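Renewal narrative, Specific Aim 1. Our central claim is that a sequence can be written position by position from structural information alone. The example that follows is taken directly from our test logs and has not been curated for this report. It begins with the structure tokens describing the chain, in the order in which they were read.
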């Protein structure tokens, strides 16, 4: 299948969870999400070529933006590292254009978590990387998400009486080095340390710290002024996520540069601890709002009708693409133990 072609049916997009409501990801979205109309026909969406950029940050580190979660990089005369891999197409652009690479192997590719917009380019980096590392929960979460996606597509095909089956998604490329709570690796005159703060955005998120540069990649632990992806089957835990954000702000220096998986255009994909606390406060407000609604006797169906949370104008999203209903549903399920 052409990498830029995504077969979507309106119902399938909603049932795919991660793929749904992704249009506001802050970078060119991976999947164009159709309006939640009742139509059941399958449509082919032709994506425009990705706009990509390498932006240096500090002491041989930088970010690459293209399609999907922000890639962090280290490129020094002694070592090369890549944090997250987006999708095959932009991973190839990143690999080919990485400043100062000069044909060298990448010493380490590391995935911040299992989601496809952060690991979809693993296979592209695989032949050029000495290792692909991740937190130990990641492979099982990748496999489970892959199986769910396949089953969703098969179910949609059955429901739509599809004449030809929708092509199966590509199987994930798994990391080949796993760690638990933390991991350190010397990279020339830099030290990279990865740390697991417990279940948050997923069950296997890590922060990756370039200690000398004082730059921290948080993956999707922060959506910078965007309603987040709340993937309960993937291990999302909102209340623990709030605690993890506080733990993170205490763990790293206040003058660290933080990299976020996604950010609203005006706010960007890098920032300071203040952004982490804004996002912590947003998640807290989300959980409190949902709790109040439950206590007021509202049903789940009523609660998830809301498309923008009052009092959070920076997070404002279009009603049709807002991820807030999914966030409210995740909060409801977590609070009620569903
Ligand atoms: Zn994610």
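The sequence written for that structure reads:
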């Amino acid at each position: 299948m052409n990498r830029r072609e995504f077969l979507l049916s309106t119902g399938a997009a909603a049932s795919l969870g991660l793929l749904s409501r992704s249009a506001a990801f802050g970078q060119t979205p991976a999947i164009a999400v159709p309006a939640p109309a009742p139509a059941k026909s399958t449509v082919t969406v032709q994506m425009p070529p990705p706009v990509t950029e390498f932006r240096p940050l500090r002491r041989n580190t930088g970010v690459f933006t293209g399609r999907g979660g922000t890639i962090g990089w280290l490129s020094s005369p002694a070592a090369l590292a890549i944090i997250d891999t987006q999708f095959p197409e932009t991973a190839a652009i990143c690999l080919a254009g990485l400043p100062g690479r000069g044909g060298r192997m990448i010493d380490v590719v590391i995935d911040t978590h299992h989601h496809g917009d952060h690991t979809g380019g693993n296979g592209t980096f695989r032949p050029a990387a000495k290792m692909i590392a991740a937190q130990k929960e990641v492979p099982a979460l990748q496999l489970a998400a892959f199986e769910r996606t396949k089953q969703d597509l098969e179910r949609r095909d059955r429901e739509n009486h599809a004449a030809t089956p929708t092509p199966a998604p590509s199987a994930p490329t798994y990391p080949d080095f796993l760690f638990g709570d933390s991991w350190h690796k010397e990279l020339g005159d830099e030290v990279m340390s990865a740390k697991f703060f417990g279940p948050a955005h997923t069950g296997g998120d890590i922060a990756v710290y370039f200690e000398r540069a004082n730059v921290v990649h948080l993956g999707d632990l922060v959506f910078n002024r965007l309603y987040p992806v709340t993937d309960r089957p993937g291990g999302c835990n909102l209340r623990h996520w709030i605690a993890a954000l506080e733990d993170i702000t205490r763990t790293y220096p206040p003058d660290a540069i933080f990299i976020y998986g996604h950010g609203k255009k005006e706010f960007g994909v890098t920032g300071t601890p203040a952004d982490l606390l804004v996002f912590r406060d947003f998640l807290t407000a989300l959980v409190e709002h949902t709790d109040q609604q439950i206590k007021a006797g509202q049903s789940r169906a009523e609660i998830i009708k809301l498309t923008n949370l009052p009092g959070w104008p920076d997070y404002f999203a279009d009603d049709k693409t807002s991820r807030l209903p999914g966030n409210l549903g995740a909060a409801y399920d977590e609070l009620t133990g569903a």
